[in-house]
Each structure stands twice: as structure tokens, then as C-alpha cells.
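Can't attach files on this board, so I'm pasting raw text. These are the components:
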Amino acid sequence: MAKTRPFAMLAEFEKPAHVMSAAEKVRDAGYSKWDVHTPYPVHGMDAAMGMGNSKVGWFTFVGGVTGYTTGMVMIWFLNAVDYAIPIGGKPMFSPWGAFPPSYELTILFGAFGALFGMLFLNRLPKWYNPLFKSDRFKKVTHDRFFIVIEVDDPKYSEAATRELLENNGSSHIEIVED
Amino acid sequence: MSDHAPAIKLEAPPVELERERLVSNNRDLGEISDQICDVMERPTPLWWKICMVPALLLLSMLGAMVAYLVTVGVGVWGNQHPVMWGWAIINFVWWIGIGHAGTLISAILFLLRQKWRTSINRASEAMTIFAVMCAGVYPLIHVGRIWYGWWLFPIPNSNDIWPQFRSPLMWDVFAVSTYFTVSVLFWYMGLIPDLAVMRDRCKKFFGKFAYGLFSLGWSGSNRHWRNYEKAYLILAGLSTPLVLSVHSIVSLDFAVSQLPGWHTTIFPPYFVAGAVFSGFGMVLTLLIPLRTVCKLQDIITVRHIELCCKVTLTTGCIVGYAYFMEVFIAWYSGSSYEKYAFWNRAFGPYWWGYWAMIGCNVVVPQFFWLKSVRTNLWVVFFLSILVNVGMWFERFVIVVTTLAREFIPANWGYFNPSPVDIMTYLGTFGLFFTMFLLFLRFLPMIAISEVKAVVPQADPHHPLGGAEEGGHH
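---
Top answer:
C-alpha cells for the assembled complex are below.
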């Protein structure tokens, strides 16, 4: 049997209001390596956890700019430089005619930026997660709410952390092994 | 947050002003999961098997017709001079249009914060993807020598010639392939948390493995939800201009040409409205039977059906206005060709198509003004089918009447579809319904985590969400 060591303290909550007020207390207590797990995005939880705006937008922006530039440069190069095809006396390159495909590529690359940016920021796909060893944690996709505080957190202490979570409405607390 | 500020207590609205809840019978979070997953977890229902048989037969027919077309050539279709664009483009535009409702529901209604969309967005997005697949069959096979289909894309070939980007047909290639790709990305991203739900419920090894693989290790972390919701918002924001551009570009295939009846500036908005109109027709056609056979009446309520009817009515009125405006401009333009084109549509050899279009697209949606109609599901189902019939005729009228009667009478003709045309079209229904039925059995047909988020049990400030009397925790 492989050696195990404690990974985190897992506290279960039954209602979104309970987990939210507990999250505010955990935030105010100054923990840093912790997270809230919920079956759906709880409105207001970002503030309760003290988190700012997501950075996904930057990935989309870079994707969109790349897409538009790719479209315009590609069409100019293909139809005006590499193999010019004269059609009805029209200019070899016109930004107006090149706009629709470039517009579509802006959206295409921007969408790739949003999805893959989100996955990158979340470090997904994640092949191993010690939390999945807990049977109770399976309910996180059903109807339960969890606060996870890692043992590596500098503020973590088995007794004090347990007390904080218990006093703030957790219905069940367990230690998850790595 | 502060302990000193007194909680603001809001008066509850009077009973008559309270909105009907989006999920009826006060289902809580767990029950929502159970109800939606039950569609996939129960043994294969009889209705599913009964529907799958004709779907697979039609799909086989599509395969046979495409094989026949490829071996013999496009001459097996009814296309001939002067109508060289026949059912292939009609059906292409029709299927693409149907897809538009899915994107409207998933993206535009999301930006407009219409929370009722959560009950129907997943199935509608699936409809979009499968409809675009059906549409995509046509551009691929209509080129005749389909082994040159890749010439549509800017891929280097031995002749060193590139696609010609001044043609709207080339724009269409980019619009439709982007539309398909982004629709799949958006759909898949929405599925990730729900695949995790399936992963945690599934008892069978293969299901657990497959759902686990595609849910990417999702654990419902709020640090993840934060990026996820932002990405969702951005994808909605990108899909909105995308869906408006797709049918606009499809309409440019016609509007950029010089033919009377096609060369009009009204085409892009008119096509987009028609697309959303027909798409909502299809959403209603699919969801009305599904909510009953899948026992999802609590989640797809009559209110949802009513709201879809209202969108259908609105877009139907825009379409009706566009028909009127086309005729007015034809008269006002003073161009004899333009005037003739519209006179010919209404009273020429294809008069039946024109009046079927007016009847189904302008008259039929007017019934949706009545609440008694909107809440009678049999009537709504019947009318929603008429909407789709009408929109097929609209594309028929636009494509065929103009081509059959263009400038020189020596070029006039009459279009008749061949049996291969008809069987190919019916075959695409096989493709659509096969995909849709498989979707119903293997993926959650309703966005579980999104529906959970709109019930009062999910709201930390609602008593059902655990909030104490007087508001915030």
C-alpha cells in the first residue's frame, strides 16, 4: 500500500447560504490555499472568497486579433500576391471583400481562446484529484456544497480549522488523504 | 458584510405579481439532477426504439442517395437550365436557418438575462449542431466531384491556385464552418459540469470512464467556476455576432448577384429573422413531445412553451414585414424586372409556393397572440410544423421563381425536383433524428447545473437556500 498523507480538510454544507457565510469567515481568517466546491456557480461566491475578475478575456482578445490578422493577411497574400486572379476588373485586394472571412476567423480564434484559456487557467484536464477519493464529495455535483482547506496552507491547524468550519454550519468534516 | 449596517428587508411582491417559478413543484437541487438524468438512466424506452427505426432507415436512404449522386453525377437532381440551383441550396438554407434558434437561445437570450432559456438551451444547441450537419451535407455533395471538395478551403494544391475570396460563396464556407465549430465548442463547454454529474452517478464502468474522460476532472471548484462563467459569457458574446453574420452571409449568396428578386439590401436582416423564426418552430416541434415522453414537465413548463411561441410570433411579424417591404420596394423601384419578379412570385407558375409561404409564415404565427392557443400544446405543435413548412417554401420561392423567370424570356423554364432530390431531403431528416435520439440517451438534454442555478433553493439570499429571515445569512 502506498504511503498516504493528509491533503486537505473537507467540510460539507447543506445550503448555499451556509457555505457562503462560512466562506466569508474562512476568507477573513486569512487562509490562502482553499476552495469552495458547488454543484452550480453560486452568485456572489467570488466576492465571498475575495477573488477578482477572471483573466479569460485576455485569451479571447489575443485569439480575436490573431484571427482577424490571419484572415486579412491570408486573403491579401493568396489573391493579390501568390496567384493574382483578376475578376471583373475588381481590385486584387479590397478590405471590404476580405472582411467577412476575417470577421468569421476573429470569432473562431476568439472562441478557441475563450475555451482553451479557461481550461488553461483552471489547469484542466486534471487527471488526478485526491478529493475524488471521498465518497461524500461525489455529492458535489448533486446537491451538496464543500469547503476545502489544504493542509499546506500556512494558517492550517487541525484543531483551529476544524473549529472554524464546525462553528460556521458545516454538517460533516473529514480529512482527505493524498 | 459589516455587522453594523442593518439588513435591508424587502417587502415580498403581492401574490398576483409574483412570477411563475421556472421549475415547478418546488423541485430541489437533487431532484433536478434525478429528473434530468432519468432520461438516460432508465432502460431504453419503447418510444425511443420506435423513433429510431424510421430515423435509421431514412439515414440509410441518405447514404444511398449520396452514393448514387457521387457515382452518377449531379444530373440525377432536377437542376437544369435555367434553374441550376435547386433543392440543394433550398435545403441547405433551410437547415442552417433551423440551427439559428439554438444559438439565439444559448447566446442572445443569455446576454439578455432570460433565465428561462436554461431549461431548453442544451437541446436547442444540440438541434443547432445536428441541423448544421444536415446543411453541411449539401455544399459538400453539390459540387459534383466531391473529391475536390477540399478546394473550398485555402489548402495548397498542385495547380497552385487559391480560392477566390471575392465570392460570397467563399465567405459562406468560412461562415458555416466557423458556425459549426463555435457551436460545438460552446455546447461542449456547457456540457463539462453536466458530464461531471454523469460521472458521479454512473454505475457502469464504460460510462464512468467516458463521462470521466470528457468532464476533464471537473470538481465544481469555485475558482474554476469563475473562469468558466467568464468564458461562457465571452462565448455567448462571440456567438451573438456570429449567428447574425451566418445567415447574413448566406443571404449574400443571393443578394450579391444581379438577379431581380435577389439583389436587395433587405436580405440579411430578413434572412436572420426567418432563420430564428423557423428555428423556434423546430424547437417547439421537438420539445413539446419530448417534455411528455421524458417526463420533464416540471423543468420545461408550459410557460417555456408560451415564451417560445412569443419569440415565434415576433420573428414571424418581422418576416411578414419583410415580405411586404420587398413587394413595396419592387413597385417603388420603378424597375420593370423587379416588379415582374414579384408579380410572378404571387401569380406566376409558382403561385402555390408563394401563398403557402404567406399562409404559414405570416398568418399562422398570428394565432400565437392568443393565450388559449399558446397553452394548448397540440395546437402549438401543429402550428410549429406549419412554420417549418412555410419557411421551406420561402427558400423555394426565393431560389426557384427568380431563376426560372430571369431577364430574357428565351431563358425561362419550369423546375421539377427529381425523386433523388426528394429522397435526399428526406434522408437528411434521418441524419438529424438519429443524431438527436442518440443525444437524448447519452447526454443530459437539459443543462443540469444551469437549471440548478435558477431555482430559489440555489439562492443564498432566499429562505429555501438556507438564508435566515431578514435576508443575507
